[in-house]
Structure prediction request, 827 residues.
Amino acid sequence: MPEGADSRQLKFRDPARARDLGRALTAAAEAMGRTVSLMHVCGSHEQAIARYGLRASFPRSLDVIMGPGCPVCITDTPEVDEGVALARQGVTIATYGDMVKVPGTVLSLGDAQAEGAKVEVVYSVTQAVELARATREPVVFFATGFETTAVATAAALLGGVPDNFSVLSAHKYIPPVMEIVAEMPGSKVEGFLAAGHAATITGWGVFEAFVERHKLPVVVAGFEPLDILAALVKLVELVRDRKPEVVNMFPRCVTREGNRNAQEQLFKVFRPAGGRWRGIAHVPNGNLRLRDEWAHVDARRRFDIDLRPLWKFAPPALVQDCICGDIMAGIANPKQCKLFGKECVPDTPVGACMVSSEGTCKIWHLYGGVPDLSSSDAPQGEVRP
Amino acid sequence: MCLGVPGRVVSVEGLVATVDFWGVRRAVRLELVDEPVQAGDYVLNHVGFAIRRIPEEDIQGTLDLYESLLRGDGDLMAADVRAELEANPEQSPDA
Amino acid sequence: MNLRLDLLGERVSMKHGAGGRAMRQLIGEVFTDGFPKAPAGAVGLDAMDDGAALPLGDGRFLVVTTDSHVVLPAFFPGGDIGRLAVSGTVNDLAMMGATEPLGLTCAVVVEEGYPRADLDRIHASMVAACVEAGTTVVTGDTKVMGKGQLDGVALNTTGVAIATRVVRDCGLRAGDRLIVTGTIGDHGCAVMAARHKLDLAGDLRSDVAPINGLIRAALAAGGDGLVTLKDPTRGGLSSALHEMAHKSGVGVLLDETAVPVNAAVRAASELLGIDPLVIANEGKALIGVRPAAAEAVLAALRAHPQGRDAAIVGTCTAERRGQVVLDTGFGRRLLVEIEGEPLPRIC
Prediction:
């Protein structure tokens, strides 16, 4: 393979370096002489940890908790219902693939599609705009994702859209939810791994006030195996040294001030508003809603979205029994939830932890507990004959 | 939460770049990136938009940072040694 | 729009056709029950294998398989629904060890208003695939449905062949090796890129092809040491491995670094956040062999133009029966089966 970016990218996936960092992580964690609980607030971190099997190399005394980091899973049921209701009213819904299977009160967008509604999966908001250009029918972009994704929606709107295009925003803003999690009573979390791609937009400076308030360290991390391991090493060091600081371990993408151009576009189009995150809590300023200047593209103001036909069929409010918030805070496990494995299963999830492919409840349900491959399936690396 | 993939810019036409992801190429929009982008640059793509031009020196910079963790330029080596001493106190030179 | 709102538990959904757990559950609960028993010595419906094998009384078996094909879009880079219909059935026969199909049937259901030119293209590619596979269509049926009652065209093909030895998708034991015959994810990736108009430029082509010739070469080289055959179609390599592990009562240790993946498929799957291990293939096989036969089978595969990229990717274990452990090169985790179609992701 010729020298170049490819191999450079691959260096962040060098298994030998990963083993070195894994050893450093074990040494740092074991030196603490007690269990250390850290939380990442990013679904992509969990995806990467799972995909590369990194969890197996974490020392036992290190508890890496999956926080409320998947913008799709925490999209609240009434938000999904709005998309489903619009689709059933005959409007074409364009959305990201992640959203299709997320359950609303009775139906997911995928279910609505199976009934005959028009639901188009797009990779980019640009495709949704093109879809609207190619028709006279109304097209609503069901917009999900954190600020990283919201900036793309903002750019598309600022770039000009046809009259039949509107946005149903379920975009979320991460920084406020970290406050919620940090203040959860009984939380054992001693440090946060912050999402590198969201921080690419917001800049790492956004976490300084958080650290000041909660005296908990934050390390900004990328998504390759070496990025995650190195960031965890750093975070354990900060916990050990009782240094509540923000450290940027993803300098190739994240700066202190972030992407100013993107931030400007984001807040030209969206304003933060309070709202429920599925299975977690009401998060002040946790939602991104379209500003009044954009009322003409706001699906909530353009359409009479009638949720009653859906809610007529609403099952009992199971959500109230869901303990996803506690599970995400690391103070409860799925078996302590009375819905787990009964009303709440992968096919008909109630809470966020059962929706996500890497959600704690989903994984427990599939494997009857945490798949611990570190002891029973050792040694690592070599395929046994 | 946000799937971001780096790629290398092949060409730029207005606000659209053709980006090579080492196997497939795709159009990537440039409205959001905060610096001018030209052919040969690396960008971070999220949902068809470049959200960052990745300076080549910062790629090496990140690698250097990780190496420094391993070398113990920070405080790590000390922790490592401390850990070993705590784990095996009887093996201290005096014993 | 006049849509009914039914509670879902009692309705079939798309995931029931996606090749994973849900589909096997539906088939198990609804379709395999109640039929009179198949003749003694037969591989019947309850085996839920790639096809059936009916004993002819002289030690040989008549192998039968049937497959319906709907794909959106009907034409995609590397193939079309016609090539898929012939290849799928020829390959299902081959996966039972029957690599010389006697003939195929073909039933076509077409939507009113479907372009005649498209039917001609589909027909031409069926002819070409038959020639490649060394077989032909011997009887057929055509139905037209009203506009909107069907989305375009659906094809069903049934194939028959004689086999002296039936190869199953079970029978593995600890220590056996698993071989894939080439790069994975090509078909599903090409179709997904076309279906969702992802505008990915690169070598994304479906691998759809009859591979009975390739399997014949593997069988000749492996003899009785070739134990199992399965084509990793819907649900990808992951589903095929899970099914083999489950039916044989073994665990599987999969070496991810050994699994061949095309550069374009690798890049596309990173962009879309989809694991190549769950993406469909239409011209590949997963072969289980006794350790002593592994090298001979691998060599025979690699000597064949369709098997150049063949690789040993896994080992059967006595631990974790029915499960697939993935060694990523960084660590190990349990591989999961996909529920439903893979879709492009943002997170």
Q: What stands out?
A: Chain A has a mean pLDDT of 87. The first strand of chain A starts at residue 36 and ends at 40. Chain A touches chain C through 60 residues (CB under 8 Å). Residues 77-174+259-311 of chain A form a domain with the Rossmann fold fold (CATH 3.40.50.11740).
